[in-house]
Structure formats: structure tokens, C-alpha cells
Write a structure and sequence with these properties.
- The chain has 271 residues and is of the alpha+beta class.
- The chain has 3 domains: 48 residues, no CATH class; 118 residues, no CATH class; 58 residues.
- The radius of gyration is 25 Å and the shape is extended.
- The termini are far apart.
């Protein structure tokens, strides 16, 4: 069930009395650091202002660009840090919603896609954190009934690779053998531990032992990736957030294309 959350109250270019701005920011006017907290939040949210001691605050400028508006939404709606990489977040959100290949890829592959396609460097751990935030708000959900199958392996130079195998019948056959072996090794690990310790508890090292055997036998690790899907954007804040991220990504696509054309033209001129 979707959790309903209050819409954020965006500020207008006008004077806000002390009590009103305190209510909007959920602050106590008795807070010794009231003025500093108000100023910090207004700065992080992207507003320009004049703070009038003991009276209130005059808003003189409001977020106007797509990036500025997204920043306010991310901070106030999702409690993300003001230093969040806005372009990376926008790309991740846009691709999860519109690109099936991206949505059904492991996080490391998603990281590589964003770098190769958009020239934006962002860690898989940061994206995982953002996805958790969206999932916590019931905006993002994993589909469990249609996973994509992937395998990780290392080449002769010990470099790690990930590849999708859902459309490869030969590798899917191996995946079925892999699953059967995994079940077998887990049972064997539990049985050995239970007999040795006279207990009915499962072996605490069952997974480590099993995956070690599987890697030795198959020289890879198979796993499923459950795609994300966005729930209906059930309030105006989230609808606006997605529209803004779409705008940011479209502008970035044009920017990347222009850079490639400029680089190609320069290379052609040199030769």
C-alpha cells in the first residue's frame, strides 16, 4: 500500500513571518540556532533571501532551473544530501523508468552504462542508496516474477565481467545445472555441520562453502536481477520530479552529442 506523504510547500517571493517559516520548516522558534537553521535550509533548497532578525525572512529568489528544482525536491522530499550528484540521479531515475536493459542490469553494469553513455561518474553504492530511498517511499518496486539472468566471471587478466544470459540457451542450460548444484551443495554443507555438531541448525558457512565450490566448478557466478518499476507517481511532487529528471537527461543527451560532433570535427580538421 502506498504511503501518502504531504506535498512540500514551496516558497514564493514574499515576506514570511517568523512563525510561518518555522511551521514550514518544522522548527521551533525557541531553538537557539533557529536563524542558522533557516538560512542553511534556504541556501540548500536554492532560495535567495534576506533574513530579518526576530521578524522573519524575505524570499528574493526561487529555484528556476530544472537542476535547482530537482535539488529542492530531493532534499525536502527524499531527505537526500545537498551534495547529491543531480545529473547522475536524474539519469538513474530516467533510465530505470524508461530503459529495460538498464533496469534489469546489475548495479555495476548500470554504473558503467552511465559512464560510457553520458560521461557521468557515479558509484554503484550511491545508486543503491538512492534506490533504497525511492523504495522506502514506495515509489520504486522490484518485480519478482520476471527476473533477468546474469553471470559474473573473470578473464585471463583477472578482470571481472558481467553479462546477460537470458537469451543464451546454452548458458541458460548451464544456469539450470548451476542451480541444481547450489541446492545440492547447500544440503551437503548443512548435513555435514549437523552430524558433526549434533544439531538441527543449518551450517553458518553454508553459503560461503557452496559458492566457493560453484565458482571452482563453473568458473563463474550466476544470479538473477529483478527489474525495478516505478509505481504511479501518486503526488504532484513526484510527478514533477520525474518530468524534471527527463528534462535534465534530454538536455544532457544533446550536450553529449554536441561534444562528440565537435570532437569528430576537430579530429577531421587535424587529419
Amino acid at each position: 500500500m502506498l504511503k501518502l506523504k504531504m506535498l512540500i510547500q514551496k516558497l514564493e517571493k514574499r515576506f514570511y513571518p517568523r512563525m510561518e517559516i518555522a511551521e514550514i520548516m518544522e522548527l521551533s522558534t525557541r531553538d537557539k540556532n533557529f536563524a542558522d537553521k533557516v538560512k542553511t535550509r534556504l541556501k540548500n533548497w536554492g532560495y535567495k533571501y534576506i533574513y530579518i532578525k526576530r521578524r522573519g525572512v524575505e524570499i528574493t529568489g526561487i529555484p528556476s532551473t530544472a537542476e535547482e528544482k530537482v535539488q529542492e525536491l530531493l532534499i525536502r522530499k527524499l531527505n537526500l544530501d545537498s551534495q547529491t550528484n543531480l545529473k547522475a540521479f536524474a539519469i538513474m531515475m530516467y533510465l530505470l523508468a524508461s530503459d529495460y536493459e538498464f533496469a534489469t542490469s546489475p548495479w555495476l553494469t548500470r554504473e558503467n552504462i552511465i559512464w560510457k553513455e553520458y560521461g557521468i561518474e557515479i558509484s554503484e553504492s550511491a545508486m543503491r542508496n538512492w534506490a533504497k530511498k525511492l523504495a522506502k517511499e514506495d515509489i520504486l518496486t522490484k518485480i519478482t516474477d520476471s527476473p533477468e539472468i546474469w553471470r559474473s566471471y573473470r578473464d585471463e587478466f583477472d578482470m571481472k565481467h558481467q553479462e546477460r544470459v537470458s537469451d543464451d540457451e546454452e548458458k541458460l542450460d548451464e544456469y539450470e545445472k548451476y542451480k541444481a548444484k547450489k541446492s545440492q551443495y547447500l544440503k551437503e554443507a548443512d548435513k555435514a555441520y549437523q552430524e558433526e555438531n549434533d544439531t538441527l541448525l543449518p551450517s553458518p558457512t553454508r553459503w560461503k562453502e557452496t559458492y566457493s565450490k560453484l565458482w571452482h566448478e563453473f568458473n563463474c557466478c550466476y544470479y538473477s536481477v529483478k527489474p525495478f518499476v516505478f509505481n504511479a507517481f501518486y503526488d504532484d511532487d513526484y510527478r514533477e520530479l520525474f518530468e524534471l529528471t527527463e528534462e535534465i537527461v534530454q538536455n544532457l543527451i544533446i550536450e553529449v552529442a554536441d561534444k562528440k560532433e565537435t570532437a569528430a570535427a576537430a579530429e577531421k580538421f587535424v587529419f
